[in-house]
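Section 5.1 Outputs to date
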Amino acid sequence: MDIEEFKQILINESKDLEQYVIEKRRHFHMNPETGYEEVKTSALLEDELTKIGYEIKKTAGTGIIASFDSGKEGRVIALRADIDALNVTEDNDKPYCSQVPGKMHACGHDAHTAMLLGAAHIIFKHKDKLTGKIKLIFQPAEEGGGGAKKIVEEGHIVDIDQIFGIHVWREIESGIIATRKGPFLASSDQFIIDIKGKGGHAAAPHQTFDPTSVMVDIYNAIQKIVSREIDPLEKAVISVPMLEGSDAHNIIPSSARLEGTFRTFNNDVRNHIMTRMREIVEGYSRAWRCEGSVEFEIGGIYYPPTINHDESVNDVIEILKTLDEVQEVDLTMGGEDFAFYLNETKGAFIALGLYNEEKGIIHPHHHPKFDVDEDILWKGTAIYSILAFYNLFKL
């Protein structure tokens, strides 16, 4: 059997497992668990992967790493799927809707988990063709919890030579495979701005140090950082969607708060934004007799840019061409903690399109009506399965 014939076997077996993967995806979707609370999800994965025959390690609290050592010389290859849901109330009318109030798989992690679990069966079936070692990483807390960072800190990445991850992608048509060399997703920073003043009656503002008026000035000034101070050829965005002030129409509060995020692909730009935000918050607050402060890296977590390795992307394009042509995906200001893995070793993050207007699958990630075109799930299983044999296909 030659290499292309073996790839076709992996593809055909992925198609054969389609219903299994769909059923698992629906189970995960109906039973969502958010970051570091994925206890039931983790238990199901551990039970199934143990039955298949993998060696199991717990990681990052609720994560699972299933590994198989071939005993033969070769690279260590890792495949990653994130398993956490979001605090979103689902607004779909499907038989597999979330059964947990206020929680939903609104970003497709249920699909990632099911696709990799399907691939786990296929990979182990052909374990005699593996060289080196394979690690299947079912990672918790991608959505702001930095689960990947914890896995790196626990030392599970030090021996890995290549790592690959898939994300279902609303921005491209259903079934299209896409990736890109170099930067793919932006860094992701959260910030909280606190302004302390002196509250009082809204009819007597002269007797107060009104933090809400300062809050508005700061909001507007921050928006000018990108338009007036960042090179137009750079990519950066600052958004401040949360503003908190008084809880009554006739009370000036003693404090106000803004919360937001900023994204960039350049660490120098990131540092400049942080410096200018501090200066703006402190300066505007002081000018109106208030105290202002800004906090970054909330919870100690900052997501760096997700930067694919050129060689890995070239390999993905070549290895997957039996399955489909790999297209180039657009840059996005979204953030992804897969970046922590790519800072430690070579690899590539891959998009699998899910946009299907005919089926009504048109809503963006994190939307209450987000859904996945289940007809693509076999293809994600095939991608994972083929890349597991990277050592065979990349001699």
